[in-house]
Amino acid sequence: MKRAKIQDIADLLNISRVTVWKVFNNKEGVSEDMRRKVLECAAELNFQPSKLQEAGFSFPLKKQALVSVVVSRPETSVFWMKIIHQLAEEFSNTGIGLMYTYLPAEIPDGYILPQSLMDGSIQGIIIMNVYDKTALSLLNELSLPKVFLDIVTDMSIESLNGDILLLEGRDSIKEIVTSLANKGHKRIGFIGDIQYAKTNMERYEGYVSAMYQMGIPIEPNICYTGNMTVKTYVEIIEEFMNKIEQLPDAFVCVNDHAANMLVQYLESHGYRVPEDVAVSGYDDNNEFIYTKNLTTVQVNNSQIAKRLAKQLLYRIDNLEDPYEITYIRTKVIYRNSTSI
């Protein structure tokens, strides 16, 4: 449904645009009766909910806005649960209800999205931790206002019918690689599934860029960029490491999960971190044992949730505005695992 404009309200009530503007900006010069008519007319025309609330209009409870966070496997990491809980708080503060919609990690043939996403009961969705292209494509086809938190690598941003938030990773990983090289490390490997998520690919691009600028050749035998899942991290890292004849000076990992599994492998095989091999991660995820010693990239869960909520509310109020791509800045945290 097309969102009403101030001129639409003015035309219906046969008043000037200035009068409508005064109502929404709480200016003097408008009678209480006319003010009430403007607000009621605006509500009926689906005018911007945030503007109505600012002007003092109270929506009936039965018309309370409801949005949903669409998520897959949130239980796999505290990282996702923290964001969900903060989202619930953010929307609650604005009088909007939040519903959870869970999708399977792998979408079977003939899968149909939950009815709640298609029956008109919700006004917008936030999509996160969904890394199945079929699921993302189905969600992308919905006419609802939507905000994505990352997508799979082989899905183009230009194809999205919604806004997207991405965690900055290219520059932060580039900084880590450059710091390792400046410390004298010349053989630096990379571990991470770069097809899993667009942010993973961008972290790899940061690694490649830094290696190129520092004049260090990339050795394919010390880089693993293939498929990795939560259930296969240990197996894949062990198999990959067993094939390396001479360990590199350092490994840059796409996330803390991979970094922690790598540290466990190295220590179980008699190698010291960072004396023998330096290791870095990404996320600053404290649910892993070694994170307190791990050089990593800090991600602010609360900031992510606040930005997601703000973006969805903006999109609901501004359906015809161009879709936006937003990067959330991150911060490199140097710890003992690299001795930088």
Structure, described:
The protein has 340 residues and is of the alpha/beta class. 38% of the residues lie in helices and 15% in strands. It is built from eleven helices and twelve strands. A six-stranded parallel β-sheet has the order 2-1-3-4-5-11, with helices on both faces. A four-stranded parallel β-sheet has the order 7-6-8-9, with helices on both faces. Helix 1 crosses helix 2 (17-24), helix 1 (6-13) crosses helix 3 and helix 9 packs across helix 10. Keywords: DNA-binding, Repressor, Transcription, Transcription regulation. This is Transcriptional regulator, LacI family. Residues 4-52 form the HTH lacI-type domain. It holds the Pfam family LacI.
Compile the SSE list and pairings.
Blueprint: H1 6-13, H2 17-24, H3 32-44, H4 49-54, E1 66-72, H5 78-93, E2 97-103, E3 124-128, H6 133-140, E4 146-149, E5 163-167, H7 170-182, E6 188-191, H8 198-213, E7 223-224, H9 233-242, E8 250-253, H10 256-268, E9 278-280, E10 296-298, H11 301-317, E11 325-328, E12 331-333
Protein name: Transcriptional regulator, LacI family
GO molecular function: DNA-binding transcription factor activity; transcription cis-regulatory region binding
Domain HTH lacI-type: 4-52
Strand order of the largest sheet: 2-1-3-4-5-11
Kindly identify the CATH topology of the largest domain.
Answer: Rossmann fold
The largest sheet, given as strand count, sense and whether it forms a barrel, is: 6 strands, parallel
The whole-number mean of residue pLDDT values reads 90
Total strand count, please? 12
In CATH, what is the homologous superfamily of the largest domain? Response regulator
* Domain unit count: 3
Q: Measured on Cα atoms, how large is the radius of gyration?
A: 25 Å
Shape: elongated
Examine the secondary-structure arrangement and name the CATH architecture of the largest domain: 3-Layer(aba) Sandwich
What is the percentage of strand-forming residues?
A: 15-25%
Q: What is the count of DSSP helices, taking H or I runs of 4+ residues?
A: 11
Structural class: alpha/beta
How far apart, in Å, are the first and last alpha carbons?
A: 55 Å
Unreliable parts: none
Helix content, binned percent: 25-40%
**Helix-strand pattern:** HHHHEHEEHEEHEHEHEHEEHEE
Protein name: Transcriptional regulator, LacI family
InterPro entries: HTH_LacI, LacI/GalR-like_sensor, Lambda_DNA-bd_dom_sf, Peripla_BP_I
Keywords: DNA-binding, Repressor, Transcription, Transcription regulation
Pfam family, one: Peripla_BP_3
